[in-house]
Amino acid sequence: MGEIKRLHGRYGPLAGYALVLICALYASLSLLLEKARDFPGTAWQDPVSLHERRIEPLKSLLPPRGAVGYLTALDSEKIFARERSLKDVELLGHFILTQYTLAPVFVYNTPDRSLVVGNFIGSNPDPSRVTREGLSPMKDLGDGLILYRRKE
Amino acid sequence: MAALLTTSLILPLLIGFSLSLFFLPPGDHRITPLLRVFLGAGAGIGVVSLAGFCFLFIPVGSSFFLREFALAAFGAALVWSAWRKGILREAYARAGGTTTRDRKTLLTPLALAITALSAAATFAIAVYREPHGKWDAFLIWNMHARFLFRSGENWMDYFRSGLDWTHPDYPCLLPLSIVRVWEYCGGETLAAPIAIALLFTLLVAGLLWTALGTLRNNEQGCLAAMLLAASPLFVLVGASQLADIPLSFFILGAIVVLFLHDRLEKPGSSAVVMAGLLAGLAAWTKNEGILFCSLILLVRPVITGFYEGPRRAAGEFVSLFAGAAPALLVLFLFKTAIAPPSDLLAGQTAGGFVERLGDAGRYGTVLMSYLRTGLTFTQGIPDVRAPFVVNPFIPGFILLAAYLALSGIEKDPRDGRGFLTGWAVVALTLAGYFFVFIMTPHDLKWHLLTALNRLFLQFWPAVIFLVFMAARGYRPAPAEESPGERQKGSRKAPRKQKKGRKE
Questions:
Q1: Residues 6+ away with beta carbon under 8 Å from B239
Q2: Alpha carbon B219 to chain centroid distance?
Q3: Pairing with A45, which of B215, B339, B379, B467 sits 20 to 30 Å away (CA)?
Q4: Enclosing H/E stretch for A139
Q5: Is the ipTM of this complex over 0.95?
Q6: Which residues of chain A fall below pLDDT 70?
Q7: Of A23, A3, A27, nearest to B403 (Cα)?
Q8: What pLDDT shows up at residue B67?
Q9: % chain B with pLDDT above 70
C-alpha cells in the first residue's frame, strides 16, 4: 500500500499531465479533421443565407414597419408541434428565417393579417385553404414564395 | 470594416481594464496585465452594453454620439485617475513576478499552441459553414439585435409584439453589443456577431489560462486552457454565436476574482465589488445568469459568515450587491417595464407546477438526462439520431476526474472560501436547473435535449478552474514549492516568490 502511495506521489502527476496533454491534442485535432472534411464546401450556401436571399425581394413589397401574416403547407400549431416532437424542424426553420429576414416587420404565424407571406418550399399552396382564409395572391416571387393580400 | 470593428472594441477594453485596476489595485493584487486584459475586456463589453440599454431611451438621432461621448469621457476619467494615482505604472512594474515562468520545458506551451491553432481553425470552418450561427443565434440573439438596430426609436415595439417564440424576455447584453458594432460599421455585417463570439471564446480560454497562471503556476494554466480549447462543444458553441460562452466568461470571472480576493493578506472590499459586477453581468447576459448571480450573492456571504463572522459577511454582501447593482437595476427595469414574462412562467398555474412537482417519473427522466449529459456534453453538439456514446478521451468530467485522481490534491489554505463558494454555486445552480426542468411547461425531453448540454457548458470553464486550483500538478523543472510547504515556511521558494509575491 505504501509503495503504491509512493509511486502515485512520484509518477501520478506526470501521468495526469501526460493524459491531459495527449487527450487534449487528440480531441482537438480529431475535431479539426472532422470539420475539415466538409471544407471548403461552397461559401454562403448555408440554409440561412440561402433562405435570406430567397426572402429578401419581399422587403420592397412590405411596409418598413408593421405586421404580416404567414401561411405555409401546415397549420401554425402543427409547425411548432413537429419541432417539439423532434420530428421536423424544416417548416419551423423557414418561418423563423422569414422573420429573421423581414425584421423589424413582425411575422405572425397565422394568415389573419391584411398582408400574408406564403412560404411553400417543396409544396404548393392549397387553393381551397387560400380561398377559405380570404386571401388573394398579390405577387408571386417564385420558388414557392407568394405575397397575399386579404380580400376586402 | 476591420478597422471600424476594432475601433468599436477600444472603449470597452479601456473601461474594463481601468475597472480592473481600480477594483483589483496592483498594490494589493500582483496579477499580470494580460489577466487584467482578459478580465477587463469582458467586463468592459458588459458595462458598455448596460450604457447601451440606458441610451436606447434617448431619441435615436443623437443617442449613438451621446452614448459614445459619455463612454469615452468615463473611460478617459478612469485612465486619468489611474494615471494620477500611479496605479497604471504600478500595474506594469509589479506584474513581473506574478506567474511562475521558470519552467524548463517547452512541451506544454507548444501543446497549448497546437491546441489553440486547431481550435481556431475549427472555429473558422464552423463560422465559414454557418456564418449566421446556429438555431438560437438567429432565432434569439442576432434576431434581437436586428430588431433593436432596424427599429430605431420604435425599438420597444418588438418587446410588445407578442413574438414570444423569439424569447424577447432574454437579457440584452449580447444583442446590444452586436448593435454597437453595427453602429460603428455603419450597417449590419455578419462580422459583428462573429467577432463578438470569437472574442468571448478567446476571453474565456485566456482568463482560465492567466488566472491559473497567477494563482497556481503557468503549467497548470496552460494545461487547463488546453483542456478547455480541446472541448468540442466549447469551440462549436463559441462559433455558433450563442450567449452561453459570454455567460461562462462572467461565471468564471466572478469565481476567479473571489479567489484573487482571498489570497490578499489584508483583503479590502474592492475585489468583491468586481466579483459582484461580473455576477451582475452574468444576469444581464442570460436568464440562467440570474440564478447564478442570486446564488453568489447569497452563498458567498454565508460562507464568509462561517469563516469570519456575521459582520464581515454583511460587508461582503453589501460589496457584492454594490458591484452587481448597475446590472441588476438595468435588468429589473428591462424585466418589469419592457420584457414580456418568461416562456417558462407565462400562462402557468400553481396547480400545473404542483402537478409536475409531484410527478415522480419526471425526476427520473431529468436525473437520467443529467447523468448522460454530464458524461457526454463536451463531445459536441448532440445529434438526436445518434446513439449515446461516451468517449472518455475527449475532455469532460471523466478526464478531469482522472487528472485529479492521478495528480493528487494540493490546495492553498487561503483558497478554502473560494472553493466552497465555487463548488456550492455550481452545485446549487445545477440543482436549480433541475427543478426548472421538473416544472417546465414544455415537453420535458425536448427541453432537456435542447438546453441541458449548454447549461453544463456554462459552468465547464469554472469547473476546470476549480479542479486545476486543487490539483497538485506536474512540475517538470526544479521542484516548485507547494502552497502547503510555503505556509510551513520552507526555504526552497523560487526567487520570484521570495520577492514578496502575495498570490
A1: B122, B123, B126, B127, B130, B133, B197, B201
A2: 22
A3: B379
A4: strand A135-142
A5: no
A6: 40-44, 83-87, 152
A7: A23
A8: 93
A9: 90
Q: Which residue's entry shows cell 467586463?
A: B43
pLDDT at B127: 93
Helix ranges (DSSP H) in B334-443: 350-357, 360-376, 397-407, 416-439
- CA distance linking residue B8 with residue B256, whole number of Å: 27
User: Residue with C-alpha cell 477587463?
Assistant: B40
A4 inside 8 A of chain B by CB: no
Mean confidence (pLDDT) of chain A = 87
Neighbours of B474 (CB within 10 A): 22
A115-119 β-sheet, strand order:
A106-107, A67-71, A115-119, A145-150, A135-142
Peptide bond into A104 cis (omega under 30): yes
- Residue A84 sits at the chain B interface (C-beta within 8 Å): yes
| Sign of the Cα pseudo-torsion (B225, B230, B231, B235, in order) | positive
pLDDT tens, residue by residue, B201-232 = 999 999 999 999 999 988 999 999 999 999 99
Handedness of CA B111, B113, B114, B118 (dihedral sign): positive
The Cα of B82 is separated from the nearest Cα of chain A by a number of Å equal to: 40
Write the pLDDT tens digit of every residue in B337-357.
999 988 776 667 788 888 888
* Whether the Cβ atoms of residue A104 and residue B146 lie closer than 8 Å to each other: yes
Quote the CA–CA distance of A106 and A108 in Å, as a whole number. Answer: 6
**Contacts A65 to B, Cβ<8 Å:** 151, 154, 157
Nearest CA in chain B to A48: B132
Contacts of B278 (CB under 8 A, 6+ apart): B42, B43, B46, B250, B253, B254, B257, B323
CB contact set of B102 (below 8 Å; sequence gap of 6+) = B477, B478, B480, B494, B496
CA distance A129 to chain B (A): 24
Residues 21-40 of A with CB under 8 A from B: 21, 23-29, 31-32, 35-36, 38-40
Residue type, B334: F
pLDDT at A44: 67
